[in-house]
Prior knowledge:
By secondary structure, chain A is α/β, with parallel strands linked by helices. Chain A is built from 9 helices and 12 strands. In chain A, a hairpin with a 2-residue loop joins β4 (about 55-65) and β5. The termini of chain A are far apart. Chain B has 14 helices and no strands. Chain B is about 75% helix and about 0% strand. The interface of A and B includes residues 83, 129 and 140 of A.
Amino acid sequence: MSAGFTLNHFSTGYRKRRIFEQLSLPTLPPGSLVAVLGPNAVGKSTLLKAIAGLQPFSGRMQLNDIDLATLSGAARMRHVGYLPQTLPQATTLVAYEAVLSACRAVRPDLSRTEIDALIERVFDALAIRSLALRPLSELSGGQRQMVGLAQAIARQPALFLLDEPTSALDLRWQLALIDTVRAVIAERQAVCLMAIHDINLALRFCDQVLLFGNGGLLAAGDPQDVITPDVLRAAYGVEARVEHCSLGRPVVLSDRVSDLSAN
Amino acid sequence: MPASTPLAAPLASTYRRFIVTRLLIVAGLAIALAISLLADIASGPAHIPLSNLVALVIDAQAQEPVQQAIVWEIRIPVALMAVLVGATLGLAGAEMQTVLNNPLASPFTLGVGAAATLGASLVIVFNLTLFGLNAHYATALMAFVFAAASILTINALSRLYGASREIIVLFGIALVFVLNALVALLQLIASPDALQQLVFWTMGSLSRASWETVAIVAAVLAVCLPFSLRSAWAMTALRSGDEHARSFGIPVERLRLISLLRVSLLAAAAVAFVGTIGFIGLVGPHMARLALGEEHRFYLPGSALAGALVLSLASIASKTLVDGLVLPVGLVTSLVGIPFFMALIMLQGRTR
């Protein structure tokens, strides 16, 4: 049995519009952080949702030695930590309860002390201990996004599907989140697919990149190999350069919208 | 963004202290309810001295038969009915607000109450005998069937057109108007005798409570409450949002449907015997949310207790506001409930 996550002959979409037809991805090895890049409406969220089993699909999906395609509901979500793009609602629940309920509702097999220990570790890892007893309605959008991530991490999935987890976060917390996610997947040898708009974050911190354009998967592999001016033009329709910063790391600078008639 | 100042104690024990406060609030509500229940039994148009009352409750045979009948056949069933109906409507409202993700939802705002009223009216007006059941059971059964049908309609429509708050509320309001029109139509063709019953019904009154009907409502509550509590964690998780709950592996659609069926059973049982008593299903959950938050292990019983307390107090008020006259309790809850509810909303608005 293969280790990591594989996806083959995968199709999904909506009644009137197919989003992916016979998509196959290279095997994503355990411990890898994979950026899912592409322009708006290209199907990044649909892809993550379908892999999470919340959107009808067909095809093969294998996580380590588990055939994910055959699992549904709570059994599937035991292995999958999907973080939707929407933030957790601003309710009177305190952050601790929000995470506790995410565990207690679906893991009756875990003892109370086990769950307590899991949550303790997650709040420490994300450095949000001080929020634990504050109602979500009093937290900022970014703080609620961190609580949402805590709900996913606490359930200890082997496959993370994060839909724009940094959308509400400032610079410091973007870096902190990516650090934490990296540490968690390294420790648990999990695979993480992360839809993200910030190409430079992907370039800097992700092990692999899946770049989607209107024609489907445009390129996959090492970020430094995948992200080139040509591919960026094809995917986003922009003229961009890949320069190197004073530390020698590649940085994407986008200059202008491409002249599409020239193509 | 948060400063990462670590709390000394482990989070679990910090949270447990937080829980103790809530347990104390729930206990406080229960004690207040017990006191209100006793006060309800002690109040009424017939002036029975407190000493007689105590003797009567302890030993039913001790006093003169008239007082004994008043206390055991009228006051205690009425007082218990107020508590049970209040608890039932409070619980139904709480579940409804959670599964529809809408703080305005209650058995009466979305037409469940109106549907139950229509079902019960049919039995009263046409003197239906269903399967040879007596009038009490036939009324309750029809109220439930109509309540369940209305809630399934709302559920189906909102699924077809997207379960947004606006759509559910719009459907609910439309349903209320249609059902009220149908009830009015029934009143038009009803015999004078049935009409009087109907009017009495729509005002909402506890005065016809009997031990039998008290037992039916108690049984419905006793059947529903454990199932509600069993899905307490799932409902708490649902407060993060539908999509988040689904991402944890919670079958959201099934949870919603089963809960709404439970709500219609609860609402129908309450409405079947006391008629339309508004606001309890709205006020109870709001009080519980303010005092206890939305962790459903506390929020659900808290809403039931708060609903019971409000209706029990309303029952006392209905007997004491006008000396010598028992007002229909539905009128009291609406008249006292509206300003109370507005105050609550404004209080909430200010803390936000």
